[in-house]
Write a structure and sequence with these properties.
Blueprint: H1 3-14, E1 44-46, E2 70-75, H2 96-109, E3 118-123, H3 139-164, E4 169-174, H4 176-188, E5 198-204, E6 217-218, E7 227-229, E8 233-235, H5 241-244, E9 273-275, E10 279-281, E11 285-289, E12 296-300, H6 323-339
Parallel strand pairs: 2-3, 2-4, 4-5, 5-7, 6-7, 8-12
Antiparallel strand pairs: 1-3, 9-10, 11-12
């Protein structure tokens, strides 16, 4: 098995999605690591001004015509899994293990979906430890997420001031990153002048409440702009109790149809799973939105688990399952945005 696929398998064992988290106790104190200076490239996991894993092009796209007509600001998911009782709540950006995990998982396997038509900006931030989701809603969790978001806000402000220059913007994220992306969209885009520059927000792997935004609407067609899309992926028939308890108060877009229709989408619409980075496997995923919970159900014969065990929660593969569909959709939305 290739190294990157193995890393994803390890991540599957480590990452517990928000919907499955259970309350626990933790005794660690607050984080006091130095704040990032976003004028320094070391604090960017991905930037068009340095060589990094967001630049990598898979072998099957070596002849693809690429451009950089827009920018994507990507907020990466959790890559900080410190010991539960003793680790600080927020990551230290000097932690080489955390940085390497970020770079070799989300930056390589997720941000690269955008490099066919975007400059990629992905800040390092003092992300919340995975344990924070186990005490979600408590004062310490709120403080921890606020601490992480402050870095993201500062990174985005730096990007706007120094690099945007009126260019079209895509906001993209996964898991913990999507928790922060919702807040970023509310603060900077929703009913704000900057909304005019929003191509689309890909807010994936986290619940998006129906009333999350005032004027940013859910995407209902593949070339809609100024909108948001998102999904949480599970095997068909799987409905976790905590998701059922949401009573359907979330939004889901099917990445095979780019609509909120609950009609099942055929694998014929599936352009390809990113499998082992240099391999794409098309026409292997069917998908539909589960009506009561608004999560994405899928069927696939592709074995993603190294031990060939059935997967019920595809959280870690939210991007990779639809990698080629997302890549094409990014281009389509940028085309529509620039045309209009």
């Amino acid at each position: 098995m290739k190294k990157n696929t193995l890393l994803l398998v390890i991540a599957t064992l480590l990452i517990v999605s928000y919907s499955n988290a259970q309350p626990r106790n933790s005794e660690a104190g607050p984080n006091t690591s130095p704040a990032p200076d976003y004028s320094d490239l070391q604090y960017w996991a991905a930037s068009p001004f340095k060589e990094d894993n967001s630049d990598v092009i898979p072998a099957f796209l070596k002849d693809e015509v690429r451009d950089t007509r827009a920018d994507v600001f990507f907020i990466h998911p959790t890559s900080y899994f410190g010991e539960e009782k003793t680790s600080p709540w927020n990551a230290d950006l000097r932690d080489t293990v955390v940085n390497s995990t970020t770079d070799n998982l989300s930056i390589l396997m997720q941000t690269t979906v955008f490099n066919g038509s975007c400059r990629v900006f992905a800040p390092r931030y003092r992300q919340a430890n995975m344990k924070t989701f186990y005490v979600f809603g408590t004062p310490v969790a709120t403080q921890t997420f606020d601490f992480a978001y402050a870095d993201i806000r500062n990174a985005f402000r730096w990007y706007l001031e120094h690099e945007n220059k009126g260019r079209p913007i895509i906001i993209a994220s996964h898991s913990q990153g999507s928790l922060h992306a919702i807040r970023l969209l509310q603060e900077f885009f929703d009913a704000k002048p900057l909304q005019k520059q929003l191509v689309c927000a890909y807010v994936i792997g986290y619940p998006i409440e129906k009333k999350a935004f005032k004027t940013i609407h859910v995407g209902e067609k593949s070339d809609q702009t100024g909108c948001f899309v998102g999904w949480r992926t599970y095997a068909k028939g799987e409905l976790p109790k905590l998701i059922a308890a949401e009573n359907g108060n979330s939004v889901c877009v099917n990445p095979l149809t780019w609509t909120t229709s609950e009609q099942w989408a055929s694998p014929e619409l599936h352009q390809g799973i990113m499998f082992g980075f240099d391999t794409v496997v098309p026409h292997t995923v069917g998908a539909g939105i589960e009506p009561s919970s608004k999560i994405l159900w899928i069927n696939t014969d592709v074995v993603l688990d190294d031990e060939k065990k059935p997967i019920k929660n595809y959280h870690v593969y939210d991007y990779n399952l639809f990698w080629m569909n997302i890549r094409q959709n990014v281009k389509d939305r940028i085309d529509a945005f620039l045309k209009n």
